Amino acid sequence: MKKNLSLAIFKHRDFRFFIVARFFMVLAINIQATIVGWQVYELTGSVLDLGLVGLFEAIPSIVVSLYAGHLADLRDRRNIIVICLFFLLVCSLTLFAFTGPLSFLLVTYKAYPIFLVILVSGIARGFISPAIFSFVTQLVPREHYPHSAAWMGTSFQAGAVIGPALGGIVYGSFGMQMAYGLDSVCIGLPFLLFFWINKRSLPERKEKEALKDSLLKGLRFVLKNEIMLGAMALDMFAVLFGGAVALLPVYAKDILFVGSEGLGYLRAAPSLGALLMAYYLTYKPPLEKSGRVLLFCVFGFGVCMLVFGLSESFLLSLFALFLSGVFDSVSVVVRSTIMQTMTPEEMRGRVSAINKVFIGSSNEIGAFESGVSAKILGPVGSVVFGATMTILIVFFTFRLSPKLKELELKDWV
């Protein structure tokens, strides 16, 4: 019965196109992230520059996110996605050109041309995130929201598993130009696929609002919802301090000595764990004792990061990252279901944008934090510090957010 409920969502034609397109988009983003991280570290040898890659993506993404959410509640969401995918395709082709006709720019300016491309990519990703989140709820009925959140997680993690491994293997076996070429093809496919998805009309607003009033309305909605605010804040601080992705090139090259192919496996390990768990959750969404499950999984994520930070064994490091993905996948599905079920249709874009500021950008700012703390504490000290902070944040949230702790999602679906 659960299997039928899980797969019934694929009766919706546009959702099928959407999930395939999302998979290739995530695949391309992760291929690119793996190559860019390795390329920047080879160009500069600086852990701080690895953090700067995240910062150059986070700043523009944060700056445009709230307006992007406002726009997603006013304009055709499919068109916004298509335009953003076009710019992401241009960025991928530019990085590809840096390996050929524009390679002289890297000789002269080192990693700065790459930072500029990442900045443009950050703007596009800042606009696409609220549109993606708010568009998917228009493709399926409400009773399928928990399953759509789980399948969204599955497609995301599938791309995140295959992307880093594929990027590392292609880069190591065929060179950087071929790897960036593959990245360009993979981001071009969702750009084309979204033209096959039908447009959806937006609910009419009862009254026109000024930009400032529109943004404040979305912000007030989140701030007054203790459950949503608690879930966002918990994941934001966990990702901000607990992530070690930005330092994986350092671990691969200088601590575990496994090279670019090993880097691909290290990047893929958490996503593999997340993929398997996300697929399981398509059949059994975490609808009971959801708040306690969320807190436990973020705690488990922090413990895994602590083990990874202290490990000098490649296999133990892979296992710790794998388990971190398992825990993270559950927290992502819980948080996504909270947002889908508790947000009115006419405010989905703005709420998603606030979530992007809270969580999405904390990935990139967390990468910068990792780079800065690695400069001060060393890479191992940086990861251990971040993991310890994540564990402490779970205890603070447990005490300060009783409604989140007692959340039962089955009451909302």
TrEMBL record:
Annotated transmembrane regions: 20-41, 47-68, 80-99, 111-137, 149-172, 178-197, 227-252, 264-281, 293-310, 316-338, 376-398
Topology in the lipid bilayer: Multi-pass membrane protein
The keyword Lyase is assigned to this record: no
Subcellular location, principal: membrane
Domain Major facilitator superfamily (MFS) profile: 1-405
Signal sequence annotation: none
Keyword terms of this UniProt record: Cell membrane, Membrane, Transmembrane, Transmembrane helix, Transport
UniProt-listed Pfam families: MFS_3
Localization per record: Cell membrane
UniProt cross-references to InterPro entries, sorted A to Z: MFS_dom (IPR020846), MFS_trans_sf (IPR036259), TM_effector (IPR010290)
GO cellular component, one term: plasma membrane
Name of this protein: Transmembrane secretion effector
Native source species: Leptospira vanthielii serovar Holland str. Waz Holland = ATCC 700522
